[in-house]
Amino acid sequence: MRTLIDFLVKYSTSMLFMLYVLLSCILLFSGNLYRESVYMTSANAVSSSVYGMAHGVTGYFNLRSINEDLQLRNAALENEVLNLKDEVARLKTLVPLDSATDARIPAARFDFVMATVINNSVNRPRNFFTINRGSTDGIAPGMGVVDQNGVVGIVNVTGRKSARIISVLNVTQRFSVKVKGTNNVGSLSWKEGNPAIAYVEELPRHVKYHVGDTIVTSGYSTTFPEGIPVGYVMGQVNTADNNFYTLKIRLASDFSELSTVRVIKDEFKTEMDSLNNFDERTEPGK
Question: Which class would CATH give 175-256?
Answer without folding.
Answer: mainly beta
